[in-house]
Amino acid sequence: MTMRAWLSEHVLRVVADPVIFERGRAYADGGAVDLAAVRDGHVTATVHGGVPYTVELADQEGVLAWSCTCPYAEDGSFCKHLVAAGWLPPRRPAIRLRPPRTAAWSATPRCAPG
Ligand SMILES: [Zn+2]
What we know:
This protein has helices spanning about 5, 10-15, 20-30, 80-90, 105; strands at about 35-40, 40-50, 50-60, 65-70. By secondary structure, the chain is α+β, with helices and mostly antiparallel strands.
């Protein structure tokens, strides 16, 4: 199954409460998601809420499986962090994972204008 299908908006709207869905999308749009690993059928990410939460989504033979380390998801509920992590990968197929910027790189002097 393609990622677009198993993490479609329809699927996310089915599993997440409507309020949770909107909060999750806001998290995704606000850059709160660090995708750690994305491959077809499996997404691992860190979502920055009050504290960072580790999120996992998987396509297990057509069944969506998930886990998040936040209290809301403890009972198996589909939380906003899961929505946020699930929202990005199928919609940004060209996404590339980059190592963090090094101190040396970010300290490179910029050319003065003019
Ligand atoms: Zn969560």
